[in-house]
Amino acid sequence: NGSQEHLLLEPEILHVFVPPFVSKSQPEGESLRSRGRRRRSFMRKKRQQPPSAAPIQGGLQVTNERKDEQFHFLVFTDVFGNKTYGVVMQRYCPLLDWTSFYKNGAGSSPCVKLFSACGFCVISKYPYFTALKDCLSCLLMQLKVCRLSDMEERVREFAAKLALVPVPPPGQLHLMFTLPPLSITLPCSEDKNHPTLDLDLHLPFICFRPQQLLQVLSCLLQEQRVVLFSADWSRLTLVAESLLAFLQPLSWQQPYVPVLARGMLDFLMAPTAFLMGCHVNHFADVAAETDDLILISIDNGSVSCSSSDNINLPDIPQAAADCFTQRCQSLQIHFDLNQCHKASCTDINEQRAQRRAWQQNLNYDIQTITLELIVNIFRDVGSHLNYEHRVFHSEEFLKTRDPSEQLFYKKVLDTHIFHSFLRDRLNKKMDSFARMELSTRSEMQKLVVSTASPDLWIEPVEVFKLPDFPTYLSFHSVQAYYSDLIQQLGKSIFSAQNESSALLARFYYMRGLINTLCSRRLDALSDFQNLNKTDTAIFPTNLVTWLVESLQQEERNLAQKRPELKRLIFRVSYNEKPPVEPDNSVKKFKLPLKHLYQDEFVRCIQECGIVKNVETIHRLFDALTDGQPRQVKPELFKDFYSFWKEMEAESHDADLPSEVVEHLDNSECVYKLSSCVKTSHGVGKIAMTQKRLFLLTEGRPDFLEITKFRDIQDVKIASAPFLLVRIPSLRIQTSSRSETFEANLKAETELWNIMVKEMWAGRRLADQHKDPQYLTQALTNVLLMDAVMGCLPAPRPITAASKLVHFDKLIHEVPMMVPEATSETLKHKINPSQDLPKPQTVHVLLYTPGSGSAASQCGMDMNPKLWVALSGGKVVVFDAASWSMLQDRIQVGESQVNCMMGLVQDHVWIGSQDSVIYIIDTHSMSCNKQLTEHRHEVTAVMMAYSCSSDGTVLQWDSSSLKVKRQYSVSCDRLSSIQIHSGTLWCCKCTLPPCICRFLPNNFLHFTDEIPSLYLSIYSPRVLCLLQRGQVWTGCSDSPELCLWWTNNSKQPFRRISLPSSAGVTCMIRVKDQIWVGCRGWSCVGGQCDGQQRSQVVVLDPESHSVDKELQAHSDCIQTLCSAEDRYVLSGSASRDGKIAIWKVE
């Protein structure tokens, strides 16, 4: 009518194209190109939808001129938090031609210069923003040259081709396919817990300065009501997705609608936190109508608040913010600057490849910088977590923050986003945060801004090119396409066999997926079975379960003839335990409000992180309830907890003069400081560290050492004259000084007396047993005594505190003299259960040597490692150079570990009672590979061989992880295997026990019965050791070893008696010695006291005599291992639970 205003109409959804687009029942001659028919499965009209349902920017407008095409992006979130992503292309079509086509079918209408917007939206479960935009751009090229009557068919063909493209699994494999004229790449996600990243992360850095960007991230971390504004709809989603990516691994938990249509603006009235976006035209209305919104203008890079000119929110901590700002200055966010020195590209795909490579590197740099920001903000959270009880000590964490930062942390700690972060930390999730925090921990105990950004190791990525799409999309052409794809994947699998197991796993996954689409269920199961050997992290459990359940009887019969499938089907159908849901609870520590009985008291003490050892907590409970009912009042617990925390803070914040500090070791802290007293060395305060006592002199503070705990000879209470009375004093006799030190401690005398004696006893036991944990435990006992004295009213305290004396009583009640041979040979002791409430049995030990210089150049850990298998499938790892714990727990199933072996430098094989061999990557410390060919518990792994209790022996190809040969031994139980002189020896339990020899080259075997010593005894554990043509055997219930010769079966065997032994539990050869772990009973005065004891017996293989008897464990020795023939390590059962390190002469 000549009006300049645009006519707004109500849009409707014309078509919805969903797979499958072809079916087997489709006639051979009919393809997707058939015209003149409407398939009811492809068309659905939505006349009741509001305008906001259509992907049209600004509503459906009728204009008198054609506008340029536009793209924008959508994110849909359902009530369960699952996201779906949409990429929309909007183009303008002649209005009358468009309507005439749908009214009258094919044909043309009068040429009228009116145009209406038409939107094309591709919806995906994955955020492929860039890839789908490229796809729609290719569709646009076709639509520009086709008739309107052909447009529906073109769109249907486009949708059908996209449906043929699989999604790459998480890891190191991108997929590439061709839609003329472009080659399009689908990137993979980093892991299954992170979404795919297919956008330009530098866009926010173009829109905002670093200071504004920090302000935005601070608002998101504090879960504010945030609204993004822009005149360009496409920027809203891309910037919002980038901001959420910057928060990783923290995950936004609140409502998220990056694009709000005009009819949805009332969503901004929601009282909860949210992140939403809308057109800049609504900025003034939104700012005026709502309060306390954070308004972020993408177009001009401003951040404001709807209720005030300034944002009244605390900023990100200054040190972390400064580090982030400095890192941002090094970013090269302009592609053209990077290309100035390069020749111009004459091929569009080559230019796109260059741009994609540049963008990937830039995205990696940005992710590293933003991750470093998150790590710097939350680095110390892990120090205030109690993993066993899933408790976060928020109040203690806040006390460690700078006063200027506390308001920020108070707000963040109460958010849902931080709660999910805590849940992952308590689950010990090894994500990007954990890896960076661990890699920078030693260099940055405090945040220090350096010039170099920490680097994250990134694995190389492979790009796999999909076959070209078929010209005509019929059922048979699609099947042919899938066949070509399977053939290409087979070639890639063959070439990747000896290169990368991670890449090989992705190819197996892809081929299994395509075989599933082609209904080749057995082939698909075979591919997924191979994932156990390559990467179990991407194993599709639900899909495999569905495949097994859908097998026809004929397929099941065929599967029974394929051993690799038979095991998988059995495991899925009958033997597979339901997955254990992780405990996602997170508790903040709260003081008890009711009386505590002993069990509740133990839990509360462990939750608050004071003590983990249950026996120590029981002694503390006895001390606090001394002379009272057997329960602790909540008031008393609060007083004790407060006193303990005050002592803890004082020990860390002790303000000592520099003249004093220089006399102390770096690790020394002052844990107890007396009042100012008169001593034989002058007036001052007595200070106690974990190593010594010293006098902090009055007046000009100075350091005067009283004694080291190991130098004390005697401690006693005396009295010193003072005017007409005598006051209590403490006398300490030390070997370092001739004169006795005396201090008039008055009322503190009795407490200092029991504290010094306990530390002295702990030091003596630590030196005797080469076990520093004695001293650590003694210090804990002393601190508990001090806390009990501080919280109990007189006159109870000293009596109660005396109940916490442990080691001083121990050395007086039970003399713990260490034999000379043990003292000389024992180097050190370590406790793998130090972070657990109770000691656990050390079932298996494995020493792996350090890596070479090549690993060092790659930034990998060079030091040798000690692998320790505890109960319940737990494996802990120590640095064998410093004997410090590297990894507190790697979980390999739930069953007991029977054996471990370092087959190659990068992997450790672990055999379990659940019949699985788990393979641990020594770099990532993760277990993503499994060998499931055994049917019964795996009892031994040796070189490239493994055996199970049912007598099965498998020989493996260590590179492909396939079984090369299989042997079978007839026995009740196959206990161990060894390789000697090209022969595989198997020790089997039968009646009588015997040794089986395999000659692998000709499959012959010979059997030798173990001598008559064992004929009347059926032992569940028989051990054998081969040495210089000799076979050494022992049984767990026999106090003797048997020795016979392999090259002369007629030569009589020899018995070797083991003194003070009730049986043999383990045996190894080290240099020219035989080390034997024995079990027995402790005897006093010729009478057995019922306490288990154990010893290591060292034998000379030439003379067959006992060289040494070594005693260091209070429970049965379970395992022995050698560390490069320099040391022997022994691990014991749970009553002791420690590892002794012995020197080899």
Automatic annotation (TrEMBL):
Keywords noted in UniProt: Guanine-nucleotide releasing factor, WD repeat
GO biological process entries: regulation of Rab protein signal transduction
Keyword Lipid metabolism assigned: no
Gene Ontology molecular functions: guanyl-nucleotide exchange factor activity
Superkingdom in the source lineage: Eukaryota
GO CC terms in record: cytoplasmic vesicle
WD repeat residue numbers: 1110-1145
UDENN domain segment(s): 1-432
Region (Disordered): 24-59
UniProt biased composition (Basic residues): 34-48
Keyword field contains Transmembrane: no
One matching Pfam family: WD40_2
Protein name: DENN domain-containing protein 3-like
Species per Swiss-Prot/TrEMBL record: Salarias fasciatus (Jewelled blenny)
